[in-house]
Amino acid sequence: MKHLFVILFLLTMDLGLSAQGIDIYQRPVNLEPDRDFDAIHYRVKLDIDIDGKQLTGQNTVILTPLRSNLNKVTLDAVSLVVTDVLDSKGIPLSYKQGEDKLHINLSGTYSHKDTVKFTVKYYLAEQVSGLKFIDKTETNPLQVSSDCFPDQARQWIPCYDYPHDKVTQEMIVTVDNNYKVLSNGKLLGITEDQENGKHTYHWKQSKPHSTYLINLSIADYTVIEDSLGALPVNYWVYKRHEQDAKRSFAKTPYMIDFFNRIYGYEYPWEKYDQVVSAHQGGGAEATSATLLGEGAVTTKQEEIDFSFEGIIAHEIAHQWWGDLITLRSWEHSWMNESFATYSDYLYKRYDWGEDEAAFDLLRKKNAYLREAHTRYMRPIVFNQYENPGQNFDSHAYPKGANVLHMLRFVLGDDTFFRVLSEFLHRFEFQAVSTQDFMQCVKDVSGMNLDLFF
Ligand SMILES: [Zn+2]
Predict the structure, then answer these.
(1) Which residue of 7, 78, 123, 161 has the lowest C-beta tally within 10 Å?
(2) How far is the CA of 285 from the centre of ligand 1 (A)?
(3) Exposed, middle or buried: residue 292 (CB in 10 Å: 0-12, 13-18, 19+)?
(4) 258, 381, 418 from 413: Cα distances, Å
(5) Contact predicate 70/37, CB 8 Å
(6) pLDDT one-digit tens code per residue, 33-51
(7) Directed axis angle between helix 309-317 and helix 334-351, to 10°?
(8) Would you give the DSSP letter of residue 320?
(9) pLDDT at 106
(10) How many angstroms is it from 89 CA to the middle of ligand 1?
(11) What does residue 85 show for φ and ψ, rounded to 5 degrees?
């Protein structure tokens, strides 16, 4: 065994020296930021003119200070233009907008025992990448589609936009009544305004999640209704997709059921929606409302050569790994991606069989080795990056998945899946670090795996 390690080590060293295409150690160190408060709830109201590509909005923020003598609050706000900030009684508060921040002077001084509430009113003066207005083409209808990962929610909602702060949220959106609106959580109702030909969707996410997981999707969608027991499972697709979408998404409830069982934790959200978006290639998990590329819907012929099943399973797995428990800073990207990637392997093992799954795991390993051979190598947990997206690479997805496969081998199936279940229960609706996971492995298995990690 020892020799094997030495050989592996030398081999890795050699690869590292000869093939470091990018010197990632030149990248800046990023630490989890300090924060003055814990944001509790965002009540976002938007009036959207889809044809005119315009938006006016307001966000009513409820927060609790994390320190004493809080008399100022700073939110993230990029591109959007603030027109007013009002306290809970409607009295204007002074504020300053600049350098991608909104600084608000509160009307008093507050401590950790207080709850502070205020409303920010604003409009969008330009098109932003965080909320895309997409023109109609031959293949897609006119649509509005959010893209909040990793830090673009702040372009259309003034908020505290870092994953370690989780909030509940309401999304109250008024549009012309020929469009449907999808967001996170449960649909509380639709209010009609016949006179103006508009209607308002009221969505509520009543369990806390991080801002990069916000979804707002608007188009003249066809909604295909499905379910898993009492859980609504719907597919929001283009009209031309209707027949194929029923088949392409048909396994969704079966996949949720599979993950319920292997994680030992019931699906945590009020519903599961999947929505087709023209700007997505693969998928982007959002809490209870995943965005998928148009390729997710395939004809019977296309399906033979190209299946989206792995991506559909991967994004479902994120509803636990990423959405229920969330990386507390971007250095822990593997807490989201390695677990979701390993989960799509587990699904394939279950549904496609041992051979297909073994090939999938090999393919994942090779994807990592290609990056290691030709670009760079880094520790899986890594706090040097210019932007968070750089940590969402083949070290995070396929390598981490293979490391989890090794961990499963070391722990054995029973213990490995008990660890996953315990971890999800212990840290549900919280932001987590790799150290939290290491501690959980130690607590459940009784094994000191510091050396493994
Ligand atoms: Zn993912």
Answers:
(1) 7
(2) 7
(3) buried
(4) 16, 25, 8
(5) yes
(6) 999 999 999 999 999 999 9
(7) 130
(8) T
(9) 98
(10) 42
(11) -130, 125
Going from the N-terminus, what domains does the chain have, and what CATH number goes with each?
Answer: 37-219 (2.60.40.1730), 222-254+271-319 (3.30.2010.30), 326-445 (1.10.390.10)
Q: Whole-angstrom Cα distance, residue 264 to residue 230?
A: 18
In the chain, what is the straight-line distance between the N-terminal and C-terminal CA atoms, in Å?
Answer: 18
CB-based contact 125:54 (threshold 8 Å): no
Q: How many angstroms separate the CA atoms of 144 and 328, rounded?
A: 29
Which protein residues have their CB within 5 A of the ion that is ligand 1? Answer: 337, 340
* Side-chain half-sphere exposure of 237, counting CA atoms within 13 A: 20
**What tokens appear for 69 in the block?**
């003598």
Which pTM value belongs to this model? 0.94
Q: How far is the CA of 95 from the centre of ligand 1 (A)?
A: 38
Task: Read off the pLDDT of residues 159-209 as tens digits, 9 standing for 90 and up.
Answer: 999 999 999 999 999 999 999 999 999 999 999 999 999 999 999 999 999
Indicate the SS3 state at residue 426: helix
Tokens of 84: 């007013």
